[in-house]
């Protein structure tokens, strides 16, 4: 595929991730989260990796590039929901000051043609990747259906879920060695070191009705141990956050990255 044709195809897609496709073309991702490649990762050489909530596949392809023997990109929401129509509905909910019905994502706004998977498919084609894709809601899948993997990526997903503890229990069921978990998290001034979870009503967090919870570092660690992980290691925690950017009286919101070991 020549550069002009590739650029035209890239321009047709709304990207979440910024992926280097080569020849000077980088997809214009919307995500502001620091790339996983910038942080410490477990050894992926020869490992099987499951990437839950893969979206455009940035981290799936990273795992492959790091030597993983098998990588499965799993997604459902980001690939199948018609975001444009859903966002119109959300705007109506804001105008009328009511909560949206999240169940409509799987009915009224579900598009079986998987419009949100176009970025993953194009990147896989261009990169010549062997990453496998699986469409499904991980909360409704079993280890027998998905498999058990040496390493599980669970990145930017937890705070979007209505049942965070159940979600971590499901992640544990897919994990043989270690899970890499990244999420929006909180520090509450005056309650540092406590196991707390903040709930965000309506679209309070980043204008997104689908953002529900922000755990403290201690809460996430405790939850992970309660679902069967033996220990956790914080890779990026509040100690590495530039707290000067926050108001001292406000809850501090940051991105937490943890490795949870079986």
From TrEMBL:
Keywords: Methyltransferase, Transferase. Gene3D superfamilies: Vaccinia Virus protein VP39. SUPFAM superfamilies: S-adenosyl-L-methionine-dependent methyltransferases. One of its GO terms (biological process) is methylation. This is tRNA (Mo5U34)-methyltransferase. It comes from the Bacteria. One of its GO terms (molecular function) is methyltransferase activity. It holds the Pfam family Methyltransf_23.
């Amino acid at each position: 595929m020549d550069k002009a044709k590739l650029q035209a195809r890239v321009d047709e897609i709304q990207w979440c991730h910024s992926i280097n496709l080569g020849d000077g073309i980088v997809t214009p991702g919307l995500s502001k989260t620091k790339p996983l490649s910038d942080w410490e990762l477990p050894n992926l050489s020869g490992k099987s990796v499951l990437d839950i909530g893969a979206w455009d596949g940035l981290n799936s392809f990273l795992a492959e590039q790091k030597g993983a023997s098998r990588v499965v990109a799993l997604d459902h929401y980001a690939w199948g929901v018609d975001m444009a129509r859903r966002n119109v509905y959300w705007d109506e909910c804001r105008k009328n000051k009511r909560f949206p019905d999240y169940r409509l994502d799987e009915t009224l706004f579900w598009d079986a043609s998987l419009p949100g998977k176009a970025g993953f498919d194009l990147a896989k084609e261009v990169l010549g990747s062997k990453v496998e894709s699986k469409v499904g809601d991980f909360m409704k899948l079993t280890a027998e259906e998905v498999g058990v993997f040496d390493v599980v990526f669970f990145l930017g997903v937890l705070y979007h879920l209505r049942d965070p503890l159940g979600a971590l229990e499901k992640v544990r069921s897919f994990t043989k060695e270690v899970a890499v978990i990244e999420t929006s998290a909180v520090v509450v001034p005056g309650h540092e070191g406590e196991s707390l979870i903040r709930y965000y009503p309506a679209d309070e967090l980043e204008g997104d009705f689908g953002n529900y919870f922000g755990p403290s570092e201690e809460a996430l660690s405790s939850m992970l141990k309660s679902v069967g992980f033996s220990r956790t290691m914080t890779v990026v925690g509040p100690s590495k956050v530039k707290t000067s950017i926050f108001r001292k009286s406000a809850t501090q919101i940051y991105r937490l990255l943890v490795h949870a070991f079986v």
